[in-house]
Design a protein that fits this description.
Largest sheet: 4 strands, mixed
Distance between the termini: 29 Å
Strand order of the largest sheet: 1-3-4-2
Structural class: alpha+beta
Shape: globular
Radius of gyration: 15 Å
Strand content: 5-15%
Order of helices and strands: HHHEHEHHEE
């Protein structure tokens, strides 16, 4: 569990991100992840009622990816979480991918992945999606919506802005 004291958070957060990065790398290369465990917030299944996304851990893994590309970290923004949640809910209810609102720098969508780790891996391994993860932005919000009656069940939205 990460503590609120930032001086105590850095090392555990770095270790979680390192383990997550290694595990995700192994997954994307078809390798084994034996002995490596993802942080619960990255591997929690969202395809069930009442599931809760750990948004901070999701933004942390995106920031770890951005750091490997020489980019500054994104600030987690609760207001953008709200925007992302509205878009994810709309997406889950209609099955139609929402358009990127004009005021945003970028938006990434995904549907069908049960965990954020799977979603992030899909974004990272697709050239167009990976470019958006590297967008010139300073703030981020992320959300997920589950609709068991929809074709894909789980719908993800990441929004980036300045």
């Amino acid at each position: 569990m990460l503590r609120s004291d930032s001086s105590r958070r850095f090392l555990p957060a770095a270790l979680v991100l390192a383990a997550a990065g290694l595990a995700l790398s192994a997954c994307s290369m078809g390798g084994s992840t034996a002995g490596l465990a993802l942080a619960p917030g990255l591997s929690a299944r969202m395809d069930q009622p009442g599931a809760s996304l750990d948004r901070a851990q999701a933004i942390d893994i995106i920031n770890a990816y951005r750091a490997t590309n020489g980019l500054p970290a994104l600030q987690h923004d609760p207001a953008l979480d709200g925007s992302a949640q509205a878009l994810a809910t709309q997406y889950a209810q209609t099955g139609t991918p929402p358009q990127t609102p004009q005021e945003l720098v970028a938006m990434k969508l995904s549907a069908g992945y049960s965990t954020f780790a799977e979603t992030f891996s899909g974004w990272r391994n697709n050239a167009a999606d990976a470019a958006a993860l590297r967008a010139n932005a300073t703030r981020a919000g992320v959300a997920v919506a589950f609709n068991p009656a929809s074709t894909y069940g789980v719908h993800w939205v990441l929004v980036l802005d300045n």
